[in-house]
């Protein structure tokens, strides 16, 4: 169930970034970079809680 929720979240973010890129590419690149940093922080936080 968790993997399905993760996949839906990733897919929705990708669709949103593509939608923004169709209008204004630099904004999509900035948003993608910001979301990448947030995803990395979430992954590190999840690993810290497990240990």
Which structural traits does this protein have?
0% strand; single chain; mainly alpha; 51 residues
Oligomeric state of the chains present here: single chain
Main beta sheet: strand number and arrangement? none
Number of strands: 0
Determine the structural class based on helices, strands and strand pairing.
mainly alpha
Question: What is the residue-mean pLDDT, rounded to a whole number?
Answer: 88
Radius of gyration: 13 Å
Element string (H = helix, E = strand): HH
Shape: flat
Beta-strand percentage? under 5%
Low-confidence stretches: none
Distance between the termini: 22 Å
Q: Enumerate how many helices there are, as a single number.
A: 2
Q: Which range best describes the helical content: under 10%, 10-25%, 25-40%, 40-55%, 55-70% or over 70%?
A: over 70%
Describe what you observe in this structure.
The chain is an all-alpha fold. It has a domain at about 20-50. The protein is about 95% helix and about 0% strand. It has 2 helices and no strands. The model has no long low-confidence stretch (mean pLDDT about 90).
């Amino acid at each position: 169930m968790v993997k399905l929720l993760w996949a839906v979240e990733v897919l929705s973010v990708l669709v949103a970034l593509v939608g923004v890129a169709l209008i204004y590419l630099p904004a999509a690149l900035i948003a993608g970079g910001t979301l990448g940093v947030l995803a990395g922080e979430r992954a590190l936080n999840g690993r810290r809680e497990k240990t």
